[in-house]
Write a structure and sequence with these properties.
Elements (H helix, E strand, L loop, with lengths): L2 E4 L2 E4 L3 H12 L4 E4 L4 H6 L5 E2 L1 H10 L3 H6 L1 E3 L2 E5 L2 E5 L1 H4 L5 E3 L2 H15 L3 E2 L3 E6 L7 E6 L2 E6 L2 E4 L17 E16 L8 E5 L5 E7 L2 E8 L10 H12 L12 E15 L2 E2 L2 E3 L5 E2 L7 H22 L3 H4 L1 H23 L9 H15 L1 H12 L8
Parallel strand pairs: 1-12, 2-3, 2-13, 3-9, 6-15, 13-20
Antiparallel strand pairs: 4-8, 5-8, 6-7, 10-11, 11-12, 14-17, 14-18, 15-16, 16-17, 18-21, 19-20
The structure holds adenosine-5-diphosphoribose and P-hydroxybenzoic acid.
């Protein structure tokens, strides 16, 4: 016999999307149950994204979960684009009427949201297994799962699929309705966390004949660095010395520039893909975040897109529960996909401008990339376009 529990919204996945949705709904007195298949320790320690758009930080501050990000987040007003041995600053804030980005690890945001959730006393179940979604075409959908060896049935009015790219929600939409758009890139990133003060105050995106490199950071004592690699590489092909050597070469400037080295405390390979599943809703099921879309990380958009999804979804659900109106909820997928494709385009543009393509044998694409980069650093209009996308496009909500 399964134990039954009743709630308004069943949320599958306790990443940024699921946790933020639960938090926003709670603020409006809407009940939810959040289920997560990993442990609390796992989700708060996995190293992921680290750039928050202005809108993401504003939402956190406005809803009361922004104290720590305000205290500990590092505000950046510009980024550097480096190629042919020269650095060029894109003055994000000057170009966007004062908007900025904040450096704050995704796992820090996840920690804040877990604490906020636990304070509400509403359910957040870790280490559940066998999650399964049923009845999304009916009035009363449900999520089945196993927790502590016991079967549970979560009866809800709506289900939010916030379970990331490898989750089960997307496949719960009827196969005949689903459409997937996808591009895989012929490269990946080796990412490291190094215990050393960042070598620059701002992020550096470097285009180099040996491939792309990115200098980022987490704290004043912790650098985050990436190098373009072959997508089939395994991490044992990248001993620490090789990573540092590539980083030194790709960031080199004729006048000299010092990349500080420190002990590497985390290292992994990230594949690069663009992916969109549509629609993002069917019947009583709504997808948000990586469950519905993946962007290549060159624009730093994945996390922000997940938060933008649930901001819209929460507002639409509130309209439904409070006022009995379904108009906003009905338009969720349409509105979100319009925004998602703009962000897909920006991420694709950054990615294809900054990486070396292995198939570019005659160098045609390299010349195009250099043409694009020179145009970018010489044109205020082009820089404004990059800047407004990078700090986050202002989108219209459900109302
Ligand atoms: N049942 C329960 N939970 C699941 C299941 C399942 N079957 N499958 C996956 N999950 C959990 C994952 O363990 C993960 O904690 O769902 C969560 C999804 O979280 P994320 O992958 O972080 O996705 P999302 O919340 O959409 O946030 C997107 O994550 O990948 C990064 O760069 C991306 O920053 C972006 C962010
Ligand atoms: C990061 O700090 O992890 C980071 C920064 C910028 C990106 C991607 C990742 O574009």
């Amino acid at each position: 016999m399964a134990r039954a529990i009743r709630t308004q919204v069943a949320i599958v996945g306790a990443g940024p999307a699921g946790l933020m949705l639960a938090y926003l709904l709670h603020r409006e007195n809407i009940d939810s149950v959040v289920i997560e298949n990993r442990s609390r320790d796992y989700v708060t320690h996995r190293v992921r994204a680290g750039v928050l758009e202005q809108g993401t930080v504003d939402l956190m501050a406005a809803t009361g979960v922004g104290d720590r990000v305000k205290r500990e987040g590092l505000i950046h007003h510009g980024i550097e684009i480096r190629f042919e041995g020269e650095g060029h600053r894109i003055a994000l804030s000057d170009l966007t009427g004062g908007r900025a980005i904040t450096i704050y690890g995704q796992q820090e945001l996840v920690k804040d949201l877990i604490e906020a959730r636990l304070e509400t006393g509403r359910p957040l179940w870790f280490e559940v297994s066998e999650a399964h979604i049923e009845g999304i075409d009916a009035q009363a959908p449900l999520v089945r799962c196993v927790k502590d060896g016991e079967r549970h049935e979560i009866h809800a009015e709506f289900i939010a699929g916030c379970d990331g790219f490898h989750g089960i929600s997307r496949e719960s939409l009827p196969a005949g309705l689903r459409r997937v758009y996808e591009r895989e890139y012929p490269f990946g990133w080796v990412g490291i966390l190094a215990e050393v003060a960042p070598s620059s105050d701002e992020l550096i995106y470097a285009y180099h004949d040996r491939g792309f490199a990115l200098h980022s950071l987490r704290t004043p004592e912790l650098s985050r660095l990436y190098v373009q690699c072959d997508p089939h590489d395994t991490i044992d092909q990248w001993p620490d010395a090789r990573i540092w050597d590539e980083l030194h070469q790709r960031f080199a400037m004729p006048g000299g520039w010092v990349l500080r080295e420190g002990p590497i405390v985390e290292k992994s390979i990230t594949p690069m893909r663009s992916f969109v599943a549509e629609p993002m809703q069917h019947g009583r099921l709504f997808l948000a975040g990586d469950a519905a879309h993946i962007v290549p990380p060159t624009g730093a958009k994945g996390l922000n897109l997940a938060i933008a999804d649930v901001r819209d979804l929460a507002a639409s659900l509130v309209d439904r529960f409070r006022h009995g109106r379904s108009t906003a909820l009905d338009g969720y997928s349409r509105r979100r996909l319009q925004h998602v494709w703009k962000v897909q385009h920006f991420s694709y543009w950054m990615t294809t401008m900054l990486h070396r393509f292995p198939e570019d044998r005659d160098g045609f694409q390299r010349q195009l990339q250099l043409g694009q980069l020179r145009y970018l650093v010489g044109s205020r209009a082009a820089q404004t376009s990059l800047a407004e996308n990078y700090v986050g496009l202002i989108e219209s909500g459900p109302a």
